[in-house]
Each structure stands twice: as C-alpha cells, then as structure tokens.
Amino acid sequence: MKRKFIYYAIACMLLSINAMAQLKVSGRVTNASDKTPLPNVTIQIKGTSNGTITSESGTFTIQVPDASSVLIFSFTGFTSKEVTVGNQTNISVALEESASQLNDIVVIGYGSAKKSDLTGSVASVKAEQLMDRPVPNVSQALQGKVAGVDVNINSSAPGQVAKVRIRGIGSINSNIDPLYVVDGVIGVDANALNPSDIASIEVLKDASSTAIFGARGANGVIIVSTKRGVRGQTRVSYEGNVNVSELYRHLPTLNSDEFVKTYNLAFANATKFDPDHGTWAPDKALNHTNFPLLFDANDKPLYNTNWEKEVYKPAISHSHYINVQGGSEKSLFSLSAGYLDQDGLMTESWFKRYSTRLTFDNDVNKWLSVGGNVSVISSKQRVVSESNGALNVPRMVSEEVPILPVKYPDGSWAGNNDIAGLEGGPNPVHIAQNRYTLNNNLQAIGDAYLNFHITKDLDFKTDFGYNLNSTKANYFSAADLPHLSADQGGVATITNNTNTYWQSENYLTWNKKINERQRMTALVGISFQRYNNENFNTEEQNFISDFFQYHNLGAGSVRQTIGSGDYQWSMNSYFARVTYNINEKYLFTATGRYDGSSRFGENNKYAFFPSVGAGWNISQEEFMKKASWIDLLKLRASYGISGNQEIGQYLSQPQIVADNTPLGGANASILLPGYIGNPDLKWERSLQFDAGLEFAIFNGRINLNLDYYRRTTKDLLLQAPIPWSAGMRTANVYQNVGSVRNSGIEVNLQTVNVKSKNLTWTTNFIFTSNKNEILNLNRGNADIFPGPNFLGQTNVLRVGQPIGSFYGMTRLGTYSTDEAAEAAQHSLLPGDRKYIYNADGTPYYSIIGRAYPKWTGMFSSTLKYKNWDFSFDIRIVEGVNAAATFKHSTEDRQTLANSLKTVLDAWTPEHQNTMIAQVRSYKFTQDSHFDTWWVEDASFIRGQNFTLGYNFPESMFGRTKINRLRVYASVQNLFVITDYSGYDPEVETFNTTYGSNSAFSQNLDFFSYPRPRVWNLGVSLGF
C-alpha cells in the first residue's frame, strides 16, 4: 500500500511539472495596413500539428510547451510570420498583405498545392468574392469571376441555373457542362448547394490540371470546397438578405386603339394580296354591337390591358443562413442551415430551398484522421413559363389582345378565344394560375474518409462519397384552358426520377523533401464509381373536376401514357501524379489516368489520359535579385489529354424497343429494332496546350495573369445518320467522327491603385477571347443541321465555322412599288418582304450570325474608406448575336393576335422604306423565314452589380457577444446597353435543361422570361 502511494505521488508530481511547463499565450492579430482585426488566422506551433485560429475579433489563446516555442501566423493573402514566444504571455502580430498570394493553398484533384507550385491553369475564387451579391446557386455566382469561364444566365425564372462553359464549346452531341466536384464527390449537381456553404471554388481549365479526372475532364473541372470546423472558441454567424425584383426593360405591344386600327387595316389590305381580289372582313366586327362587354356605345374599347404589367410584377425574395463552427485541438465540426424563398417576376412562379449541412473532422491519434460531411437539400420550384413555342405565359403577354380584361365583371376569365378568328390562347394570368409544373427535389450529398499517416511523408486516404437525388415533377393543366388542355378535359402528369451514385476513392500521397533544394509529391490511386437511375411517368386526362389536379390521377378517365425505366453506368479508374520542385525555381508535373467506362464498346472500354506541365519561377533566379520591384515572374506551360464520356447509356450496343400495335382487334405488345449500336464507340479526346505568364510587381500592387490555350477535340461523339431502310426506330448511330478546335487568350489584371491607412482602392479586369472552329465533321465534311428547327433550320455545323452559327436568309427590306416586276418573279407584291435569292430563283441561305461572343470582359472596382466599402462590376460581351424569333408571331400575324409596336412601322404606300411587310389578313401572310431581321446584334455592356456596405466598429458592441456586424445595399442588373430588341441579349428558350448540350439553342429567343433589376438589403452578423 505504501509503495502504491509513492507511485501515485511521483505520477502527480510529474503531471504537475508537465502542467507547469505549459505556457498560456494570448494575443491579437491585425492587418498591418489598416490595423483591423484578422479572423481565421492559422496559428501553429512550429514543428508540431498543434495550433488554433483567431476569433472574429482577431484574438487567440494557445498553450505552448515552453518559452522556446515558435508560433507561425499564416493567412490567405498575407505574408506568414514567425514569432518566438520567449517570456511573452501576450503577443500582438501585424501581418503584411501579399497581393501576389504565392503561398495561397488551392484545391486540385485529390489534394492541394501552393499557388506558386502550380504548372497548370487553375483559378481560385474565395467565398467573399462569390457572395458579393445574392445568388441562388453556384453557377450564377461564378459569372464574371474567372477568365475563360463563360456563364450565361439564360432564364431568370426562380431556381434556374446558369450555363457554364469553360474555354469554349468542344463537343457537338455530348454534354458540354464542366465536371463539378464537391468536397471530393465527383459529378454531383453543385447548383443544388446553398452558395453560403461554400468556402472556395477552384476552376481547373487546362489539361495539366484536368487530366487527373481523365474521361470526365474535357469540359473543365469546378472543384467546390465547403466550410469546415475551426479550432478555438465556437463561433456563430448569420447571413440574411431581402430583395425586390422589378421589370426594367419592356417589349412594347399595341394598345387597344392601335390594335383595333391595325386589325381593321389588315382585313382591308387583304384584297390586295388575295389572288382573287375578294373583299375580306372579320367574322364579327370589333364594335359595341358584337362585343358589348368590350366596347362602349361609341365603339371605343372599354379596356386597355397592359398584359406585361399584369404578369410581371415586383417580387420580394429573402434568404437566411446560419452557421456554427468550432472545435478543439483534435476535433473540428460545423453545422449550417439555410432557407431561400425566391419569388419570380412572373406571377405565380417561385422557388423555395431548405438546406442543412454537417461536417466533422477528428485526429484520432498520430496515425489516423477521420471525418466526413453530409448535406441535405430540399427544394420546390413552381414553373409557369415552360413549353417553348406553345401558347405559354411569356408568349401570351405579347399576343393577348389589349381590348380584353383579365376577368369579366362576372368573374369569368377573358381570352383571345372570345373573339372569333383570333388564335384562341387564354390570357397569361389565367395560364399562370392554372397550368404549371411543381418540381420537388430532395438531394443528399456526403462523404466519409479515413486518412492513415503511415510515415511523416506518406499518407493513405480512402474516401467513400455518395449522392442521392430524388426528383418528382407534378404537372397540371386545367380543363378551362382553350387550345392547351380544354379539349383533353384537363391534363395531369407525374414524373419520378431517383438517382443514386457512389464512389470509392483510394490513394497514397507521398510528400518528400529530398534536400534543401528539392521536394517532390507523388500520388497514386484507384477509383470505383457507379450510377443508377430509376424513372417512372404517367399522364391522365379528362378529369371529373380540376379540384384533383395531380393529387389523384385516378380522377382522370383517360390514361394517355405510362412508362418506366432504369439504367446504370459504372467506371473503374487508376490515376497517378508526380510534382517536382527544384529550388522553388523549376516546377514539373506529370499526370496520368487510366479510365474504364461501361458506356463504351467492347473494343474500347479503357483509355489513357496523360498530361505534363512545367513552370519556371524566373523571379527566384539570382540575376533577378536586384529587381526588387518584381515580386513574381513565372512562366508555365502544359500539354495533355482529357476525355468526354457524357452521352447516353448502352449506345455501343444494339437495342430493341417495346411498342404497341392493333392486332386481332386488340392492342398487342411488340418489339421493334431500336438502335443499331457501335462496338467501336470510344471517348472524345481533348488535346490541350496551355502557356501562361504570372507577373506581380511593386509589392503586389500590380498582378497580371496571361494565358494562351489551344484545345482540339478529336473523335467527336457524333450522331451519324443511317438510312431509314435499315429498319431502326432511331435513324442515327453514335460514331467517333470529326474534330473541333478552341483557341484563345485570357487576361486577368489586378491593381491596388491607392493604399493608405483609411483608404484603399483596387481594380480587377478580366478579358477572354475564344475562337471556335470546326475542323472536320464526317467523311465528306457535309453540312450538318442540328436544330432547333424554327420555321426551318436555325443552325448549321460547317467546317471552318464556329459551333453556334446561325443559318438563314438575308432580308433586304420590302419591295417598293417601283420593284413590282422584281417581286412578281417570286410571286410577291410591293409591300412583301424582300430577300436575296440564288440565280435560279431559289432562296439563298448563309451563315447570318453567331451565338457565342468573340470576346468578353469584366471590370470590377472596390473602394474602402474607413468602415465603408463600395464596389461595382461592369460586364462586357462583344461580337455575338441573338435571334429574336418572337418577331415571327408578333410582326407577321395581325389578325390572329396582338403585335409589337414595331408593326406601326410596316409598309404603306406612303412609307415604303421599311423592314416590316404591309399588314394583311393572316390568310395571305408571306411565309416567315429565319432571317437577318430576326438575328440581331446582341453585344452588351451590363451594370452587373453595385454594392455599398458598412462594417460597424467592434467598439460599439461592448460586452455583447457580437464581434462582427456588416450591413449592405446592392443592386444587380442596374443597366444594360445593347441594340437587342428583346428583354435581354443573354437568352435561351429552346433548351433550358441543365446538363444537356444546348450549344445550338443558345441565344434563340422565342418569348423569354425577362431578367429583372434586383434591389437588395443584406446583413452579416458574427458572435
């Protein structure tokens, strides 16, 4: 017993000595230039993995072993600093800004690296840059942030995502979206995330950086890193904003008096264009006798409805986000929750999203770390602007006649069908309330990892990621909507899609410092991926009552369609990367990935995707030491191959399809030849060369990044036509035919113009120029017309021309009375549209525009004075066209619907110098053609974002727990300077589905959802 007591006393003594040896150090970290506190600064005890980070007020507390301990203070954008503790118990540290950001850590595939070590073209965007304006998703947040990344916000409908294209269009029939990687989970829909959860985004643009993703990296890679836990005191932050959207550009249509005058004139002019020169009049004249509810006793219209005002109303949206972050020396955690309620400018359109995210990281011991994260996102979207080309809401805003009210005094809906002879579309308010799709989406994204620290240089990480996505689309169209669903007695459809994806990533990473001059990082790994889809859809018609909508399909008496299906694809990959650094001057990278995919033919299941890159930090050379004003001068170049596998499933295999046919007086199930298959089908290959220059001078006051790239995509996955006589339901087969080249330059110039104690002024200019050219298509290089088809072909694929070339006729104007003989050669009259014709009299077609710009730019500026800050972004897009195809039904159909005010400039005997044909009854309207009058110059200068903010001084908060409070006001889309006549020059209505190749529908506008101006108030709070 006595011996045990002695042992116990000795143990207590040793513990006491150890506790006494520990020193408690506190302090504060500030910005050396303006003395403001710096939160989230990493403080590490040199030679150990122990450390902490500063609070929102820049303070910290840390236990160190003894007085000889050295603390390393590091923070993104600032020069790191080392401080020996000595006899200090309170340490104040001021960090110097380093605009060159050479030591910034950027995320790359399967790891991270210092920016100064990169040989590839990688752009990094931090959270504070992404969230400088309220945006609902990742793709919209990226617009104008990265050179070489073209972001088109084609629809402003709530919940819609933007189209992101990196360094041009490199494919024709394959998917052209970049690959998204969220916290290591590959191929997920990052746009489902709450943008407030994002810590940073890295955009991988060249082959040196994307080849590690092999067969899925050809369109570029966007790596999203979300917020994780932090060491030290638990902190809570809140972000909230409320905004109002308003319509600020208009598409003027005829008012009631103008409509009646034009309507009557059109019938009067019909005699001229009638080959029999008959007399024409409406079925019922527009007067009080025939329409007592629409005209007064003097035959004046009772109503002058502005349908634009009835449909596009100011909309209020708001979002809220709360985040809790904390941790100890060994464990980190974070928990966040967000809510977005986005109302659309178009009545009855809205989007709601609920999100929550949990992360956990733990150092179990010296040789094992574990962690993971899970996000759950639930959203609902009410879509009322769908069905392009049909009598949908945005179309009826322009075509509904103004002499009609929204509702008659008895409460019944008014519509064009109330007037005999008009195209009987319901009024747009009626459609918006009684025809819509409700998209319900539930998504879970997450991963779990084990990281084994085998030696001080060698780690093995195994990561399991998953993505579960369930989508249910409920569609309803009421029985009282003429020409839409009245004939069917109402229509309801339910479509279910359930997608499951999992991946297993396993890799060794060896970080070896060979000697004082050389270090190397080597990576080798194996990956397994699998994707499953199950889908179901059914449509019912002829409902006993609209009350049931899609809630009870059994209430419909006609089953129109029912179908289901499922498919899978899987991949197996092997990858490796080696980076070598010699004396911080000479940098080398070699990457390879060997991919196998179930999507391709038996003869081409696997392919190898290599890349090499090199960099030269010239500023580190001895002969540059005297040029102290040069902070960085770096040259880099890379070349490599990445792939594209994003096509449908089973296209290498012959397929049969099920169908029904009448047989013996009853429907019988049959099997038909569906698709011929191609066992030699393989990946598209994207071969890319990139050369870059990075330049920083005057202690980071001027930073310049230049890139030149040349990317050639070969073995295009092209739908080659086959004869119908082959007997296949699908009259084409995927083949690897043709090639496309994208080449261009990228410029990113950052300057610090003024930097003093109270005032800082910085600017940023981004410039991108891309040239796209089809090199070859098929064996004969014949033109391909990929659609969409609108009164004929709209696009052509032609060797030597870019993808997105508009194809149509050239309108010269209208025939004058002096040109009657010339008009007669084409069976036309004075007042008809005049086109260029071939020598044989046939219509002449040519390339008449381009859907993608020659160059784009963004000019941003930020001014900070004391606690105030003001910033703005101006976006410039030049050398691009948009097709205002809505002119077809609003300039050429005067007796069917309302028209644009431009028809007031139509041909008359007194006014013959015009592009718009003489108005006449629709029975004698000249055929419309996709032509140069529709394809307009869509270049623009947009006031993208303007923000004014104020940071309340910390001294105001006293003893409260609040340590940060910022309020701001901003406006998006303040102005747009353009010659385009539609609502917005950046538009797409023919194909707005995210994840599809819509290269040929970009900038085709057939009644779009207008882009609003958005006024926003926001607050950022930390405690």
TrEMBL record:
SUPFAM superfamilies given in the database record: Carboxypeptidase regulatory domain-like, Porins
Span of domain TonB-dependent receptor plug: 115-221
Coiled-coil ranges from the UniProt annotation: none
Domain TonB-dependent receptor-like beta-barrel: 429-974
GO cellular component: cell outer membrane
Signal sequence coordinates: 1-21
Main location per the UniProt record: membrane
Membrane topology: Multi-pass membrane protein
Location(s) in or outside the cell: Cell outer membrane
This protein's UniProt keywords: Cell outer membrane, Membrane, Signal, TonB box, Transmembrane, Transmembrane beta strand, Transport
Homology family: Belongs to the TonB-dependent receptor family.
Identification of the protein by name: TonB-linked outer membrane protein, SusC/RagA family
Organism (species): Chitinophaga rupis
Phylogenetic classification of the source organism: Bacteria, Pseudomonadati, Bacteroidota, Chitinophagia, Chitinophagales
